[in-house]
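We emphasize that the prediction below concerns an isolated chain of 341 residues; any contacts that depend on oligomerization or on bound cofactors are therefore not represented. The input was used exactly as deposited, without trimming of termini.
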Amino acid sequence: MRKRRVLLLVHEGLEPPASIEGLSSQEISPFKAEYDVRVTLEELGHEVRVLALGDELAPLREAIAEFRPHVAFNMLVHFRGLANMDAHVVSYLELQRLAYTGVNPRGLVLANDKALSKKILSFHRIRVPGFAVFGKGGRTKRPSRLEFPLIVKGATEHASLGIAQASIVKSDDELAQRVDYIQRTVCPEAIAEQYIEGRELTVSVMGNQRLETGPVWELSFDNLPAGSQPIATHKVKWDHAYQERIGLRSGAAVDLEASEQERLQKLAKRIYRVLGLSGYARVDMRLREDGKVFVLEANPNPDLSFGEDFAESMETRGYEYAQLLEKLIRLGEGRAASWPG
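Result of the prediction step, given as a token string:
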């Protein structure tokens, strides 16, 4: 294995500490992925330099000139606080002709825009929930074709930011209130999607031209409070005590026929290609009782924490955590080798 100089790109405030001894799982959670990646790369013998980015690219330019990395390990999910700006950081890496892990700029732009990605998928006859987008300052007028219940999200946000049980609305008044909340606290554009009853499934995908998938994964709840819907709210994703209370389980989906598994994995690969993704991503779907599958979104560069869904899913395909990180680096270098010039 070739040893490399790896520039680990993280967000300001998420710099992994030297040690996590004495910290609770809740305290570790915000930077767990960054810590896991840094420690594992160092154990593999790579020289790792952590660079925390805020709202300026100058530190990145300086780090590239001084450290001369072989590859950037990209763990950014936004830039300047905006989820749709991380693509510009990756574009800068391309301009610097520096190999990087994860999704390319075009794929980030398409996948991070929930409305645009749904339009593209619909064009390719891939089933998505009906939706409408509401910009800040405009009227929240629901199209007549869009029937309740709806779920309201930030149009360009991820990590379930702004998603709660109150995100599911059943009237025009509730819709207007939730859209206003999203626009004030999350991002200027809100998207309201048809809420699809069914099983919450995901498929992890990895690769550039040749794609690999993990098994179909399922999110389920054993003790969800009465009246609550089984959705991945921000609290479900990040509050460990709440996860225990509701009996959150995440693992390989059970009771799926082999043919259904294959169908969903093929669909995930198709979506990955349609949106021009590279490196790695996770495709989120809902499977209705009638067997119809609705694609919710594709998530570029999902959580890489040891023990989380992506790493666990790929471990079933023979990739131990260290091997997975090495694979992602090789994919980034392989894509860089195909750049023109």
